[in-house]
Amino acid sequence: MSELQPVRLGIIGAGAIGKVHIETFRQIPEVHIPALADAYLPAAEQRASEFGIDRVHATPQELLENPELDAVVIGVPNQFHAPLAIEALKHGKHVLLEKPMSIDSESARLIFETASESGKLLMMAHQMRWSALNRAIKQQVDQGTLGRIYNVKTGWVRKKGIPGWGSWFTRKDQSGGGPLIDIGVHMLDLSLYLMGNPKPVSVYGSTYAEFGPQRRGMGTWGTPNLEGYYDVEDLATAMIKMDNGATLLLEVSWAAHAAGAKEEPYVQLMGTEAGLAVSGDTGMLITHEDDAVKETAVEPLEGESDRVLMGRHFVECIRTNKEPVSSALTGYTNNRILDAIYESSRTGNEVKINW
Ligand SMILES: NC(=O)c1ccc[n+]([C@@H]2O[C@H](COP(=O)([O-])OP(=O)(O)OC[C@H]3O[C@@H](n4cnc5c(N)ncnc54)[C@H](O)[C@@H]3O)[C@@H](O)[C@H]2O)c1
Fold first, then answer.
1. CB hemisphere CA count around 298 (13 angstroms)
2. 257 CA distance to ligand 1 centroid (A)?
3. Rounded CA gap, 185 and 164, in Å?
4. Closest C-alpha among 120, 88, 111 to residue 317
5. For residue 190, is pLDDT > 50?
6. What percent of the chain stands above pLDDT 90?
7. 7-128 CATH pick, 3.40.30.10, 3.30.70.1400, 3.40.50.720, 3.40.640.10
8. Cα-to-centroid distance, 150 and ligand 1 (Å)
9. Which of 46, 59, 75, 334 could be bridged to 17 by S-S, CB 3.0 to 4.6 A?
């Protein structure tokens, strides 16, 4: 592909996140979106006319047959991530895959292996890594401000935010799980990235379902289906140990009696020389100076939105054959941890992760 030709991108999934991806990539001149597919054709047609997309396909398979497409975005329910990502890679397409990589680590491993064999790019859509504040935090970590990071706390506690009750979101066979795999995966991903990608080696965790099964705690994302069912957790908590001795504490919920919780994503990195925290739009650096605690606000970096920067990175990686920061390996690693938390909750035991 010549540098001057735009990347021809097909969108698979015309739902809520599909729309966000179209809006994002339309802001990147190096990308052209000629085609869109959704299993529900009216949704695809409506989205295509909204954004002036020429071709509409009733199945992803039809879209993947188009030899003119260089890459696809996959933004469909989690159960289809693995089959569609694998099919797309085998059709020679680069893939930007929505999170979580898959509903379990076994199918995530198949994506990882297929990506390696195909020579095509598979990048996970973890836009939080690209926010103005998280980039500022990452810059400080990379400059060594924290020294050795030995403990991290992260989470996203929603008090009333169950998405699409009864839809694929709350059905284990279609989603892989509840808030842990839905929003917890973002916090795991961001934390591991900021920590410098240490290898997780053991996990102890618990999950609970106290609101969802009683149809309490519904939020506004997704479309509820009261004919459907709820068999996933609504709260998860875990401790993850890394090969370098560091610990990561995670708490995440869709619904909980969490008095005082800010309901925003947070990460608190504790290092030997300093600490950095992000909570929603606020960043803070903490140091001990002359035996006194000093806290300084962290200013966000300048630049485009998180999603546009993520999209630009995808394009750059395609064009330069570069490994994306949110690589297939990081997606697979996240799925290994998620599986281990569910297993630990089921068995009551610590779960070792062997690499
Ligand atoms: N990165 C983020 O912050 C973020 C935010 C929201 C959702 N997501 C992820 O995006 C994915 C989709 O979520 P959503 O909120 O857009 O869901 P949604 O229900 O709004 O949209 C899903 C769309 O996929 C279509 N679809 C279902 N099965 C399909 C198939 N086999 N082939 C083609 N189309 C199919 C549906 O008809 C629907 O239009 C999920 O994996 C979710 O975790 C990520």
1. 27
2. 28
3. 18
4. 120
5. yes
6. 98
7. 3.40.50.720
8. 36
9. 75
For residue 221, which of 39, 42, 20 has the smallest C-alpha distance?
20
pLDDT higher than 50, residue 118:
yes
Pocket test for ligand 1, best of 11, 12, 17 (most atoms within 8 A of CB): 17
Angle, CA of 73, 65 and 308, to the nearest 5°: 20
Is the pLDDT reported for residue 1 higher than 60? no
Ligand 1 nearest-atom number relative to CA 38? 34
Q: How many CA atoms lie within 13 A of 104 on its CB side?
A: 7
3-state helix, strand, coil in the chain (%, to 5): 35, 25, 40
Which tokens is 220 given? Answer: 């506004």
Q: Express each pLDDT in 159-168 by its tens digit.
A: 999 999 999 9
Structural Rg of the chain based on CA atoms: 20
Question: Does 2 score more than 50 pLDDT?
Answer: no
Task: Enumerate the β-bridge partners of residue 251.
Answer: 155, 237
- Substitution candidate for ligand 1 out of 12, 38, 334 with most atoms within 8 A of CB: 38
Residue 4 has what pLDDT? 66
Q: Which residues line ligand 1 (CB under 6 A)?
A: 12-18, 37-40, 43, 60, 75-78, 80, 98-99, 125, 127, 182, 222
CA of 123 to the centre of ligand 1 (A): 17
- For 130-306+335-352, the fitting CATH number among 2.40.10.10, 3.30.360.10, 1.10.10.10, 3.40.50.2300 is 3.30.360.10
User: Which atom of ligand 1 is found nearest the CA of 80?
Assistant: 31
| pLDDT tens profile 54-102 | 999 999 999 999 999 999 999 999 999 999 999 999 999 999 999 999 9
At residue 93, the pLDDT reads 98
Q: Which of 98, 174, 306 to mutate to test the pocket of ligand 1 (most atoms within 8 A of CB)?
A: 98
Q: What is the pLDDT of residue 332?
A: 98
